[in-house]
């Protein structure tokens, strides 16, 4: 697989979940990947998995905070120093925040969720864009969520941050008019990642793992590699005319109205 042969990619949140799956998939497809995460141990596991799978490209790691301006500048500079530029940015890092009611939420909580989930991707896009312009184009991909499309799919601050990320993808696609830089957002449904693992663990403990995902037409949860495959497409030249889109990968969840499987309207 050489869909990304020679492309230089940054992936944040690459210490596990979707980010790890994407880092390994991109490397197998021939990209030179800088995998970024706050979790140095998770990055070591990502590097080990990529090495075990083999690749047509390369993967290096850097421990950094994807929501910190100095760290963002640092990891973009590292990609340029190591690989000579940036062709792909997959701003995937995110946190959930609180599941509590609005009355229990604080300004500090909201600021932290927005810092990581929305300001971080803005900073990464701002820093990577000049290098993409110099190369004649590039692909910026955000991990948003179905929670950014409609209600009841995530905590309040998380959902608001992901809705903002969808808007950021749309507005930046137009900001980069005529540059060849494409910007898109992926909106995953329920995937087992570090954020959602407590939900999956609880379902396992209660013997109800099979019920996760029952509200979508595929009647199952998604897997990280399925989101990584969509990111690979958006990063590749095969998606050369896909721009400014929020693409749901959710088993069909957002295609439906609320319902109970096997029940009529009444």
Reported for the largest beta sheet, the result is:
7 strands, parallel
Shape: globular
What share of the residues does DSSP label as strand, in percent? Answer: 5-15%
Roughly what is the average pLDDT, rounded to an integer?
Answer: 93
Strand segment count = 7
- The helix-and-strand class reads alpha/beta
Strand order of the largest sheet: 3-2-1-4-5-6-7
- Contiguous helical run count: 7
Stretches where pLDDT is under 50 for at least 5 consecutive residues are: none
Q: In a nutshell, what does this entry contain?
A:
With 266 residues, this protein is an alpha/beta fold. The chain has seven helices and seven strands. It has a seven-stranded parallel sheet, sandwiched between helices.
Plain-language structure description:
By secondary structure, the protein is α/β, with parallel strands linked by helices. Helices cover 42% and strands 15% of the residues. The protein contains seven helices and seven strands. It has a seven-stranded parallel beta sheet, with helices on both faces. α1 (17-28) packs parallel to α2. It is globular. 47% of the residues are buried.
């Amino acid at each position: 697989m050489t869909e990304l042969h020679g492309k230089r990619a940054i992936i944040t949140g690459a210490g596990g979940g979707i980010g790890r799956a994407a880092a390994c998939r991109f490397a197998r497809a021939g990209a030179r990947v800088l995998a970024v995460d706050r979790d140095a141990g998770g990055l070591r596991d990502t590097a080990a998995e990529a090495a075990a799978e083999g690749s047509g490209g390369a993967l290096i790691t850097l421990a950094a905070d994807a929501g910190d301006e100095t760290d963002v500048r640092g990891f973009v500079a590292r990609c340029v120093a190591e690989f000579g530029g940036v062709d792909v940015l997959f701003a995937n890092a995110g946190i959930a925040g609180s599941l509590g009611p609005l009355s229990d939420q604080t300004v500090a909580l909201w600021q932290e969720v927005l810092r990581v989930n929305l300001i971080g991707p803005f900073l990464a896009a701002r820093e990577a864009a000049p290098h993409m312009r110099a190369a004649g184009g590039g692909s910026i991909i955000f991990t948003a969520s179905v929670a950014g499309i409609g209600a009841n799919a995530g905590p309040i601050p998380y959902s608001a941050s992901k809705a903002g990320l969808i808007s950021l993808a749309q507005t930046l696609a137009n900001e980069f008019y005529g540059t060849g830089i494409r910007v898109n957002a992926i909106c995953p449904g329920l995937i087992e990642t570090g954020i959602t693992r407590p939900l999956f663990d609880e379902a396992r403990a209660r013997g109800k793992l099979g019920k996760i995902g029952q509200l979508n037409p595929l009647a199952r949860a998604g897997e990280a590699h399925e989101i990584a495959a969509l990111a690979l497409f958006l990063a590749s030249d095969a998606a050369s005319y896909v721009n400014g889109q929020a693409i749901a990968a959710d088993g069909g969840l957002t295609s439906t109205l609320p319902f109970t499987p096997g029940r009529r309207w009444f």
